[in-house]
Specification:
193 residues, alpha/beta, Rossmann fold, 7-stranded mixed beta sheet
């Protein structure tokens, strides 16, 4: 069963990141979000790069976090904006490309969930994220060609992240129940700045 964007966003607020709320593994990406939230929970200010429909940002806002979002387009955010207005959540959206960003503000954490595989110059994007952060950059991306899409510019192995000059951890995680059968996985990369 496919859910509407509004149903996905309401599910984030009603039962955040519960595994298996949809037997087809539709959004939210429960396991990924659970792991990311454990990492970022102690922090207060966030920049989410490529927020998609804004589901993770909406959850952070519901937890009284200060959230800004950056994306080259904001077409998917209509429903999230409506929910934020209804709930009185404050957020800022920057319509920019992370590779060419002019932001100079500093955030506790910069997050990019399933984004860097879509960016031609992903190294520059990650460097720019590291310039904007006080504590951590948290990224997820498919391992090799898992979850392939015509929009993906890259597929990654662990070796593709050796250019990062700051201390970082990288692990493979199962993102949805269906991945247990297929073996498809994502990388979770945590960079300490």
């Amino acid at each position: 069963m496919i859910h509407s964007i509004e149903e996905c966003l309401q599910a984030i607020l009603e039962k955040p990141f519960e595994e298996g709320w949809d037997k087809n593994g539709e959004p939210p990406l429960c396991m990924i979000y659970q792991k990311i939230f454990k990492i970022v929970k102690p922090f207060d200010t966030f920049l989410e790069v490529g927020p998609g429909i804004g589901d993770f940002s909406l959850y952070l806002l519901s937890q009284n976090k200060k959230v800004e979002m950056l994306d080259i387009k904001e077409t998917n955010l209509g429903m999230m904006k409506k929910i934020c207005e209804e709930k009185g959540y404050d957020y800022i959206f920057h319509s920019q490309d992370i590779v060419k960003t002019i932001l100079t503000k500093s955030y506790d954490v910069v997050i990019a969930v399933e984004v860097i595989e879509h960016i031609v110059d992903y190294k520059k994007a990650i460097y720019n994220m590291m310039k904007l952060v006080k504590h951590k950059v948290v990224l997820t991306t498919p391992v090799l060609n898992c979850f392939s899409s015509p929009d993906h510019k890259h597929s990654f192995s662990k070796e593709d992240f050796k250019f990062i000059e700051k201390p970082y951890k990288i692990e493979k995680i199962i993102s949805k129940k269906d991945d247990l059968k297929t073996g498809q996985r994502c990388f979770l990369i945590e960079i300490d700045v």
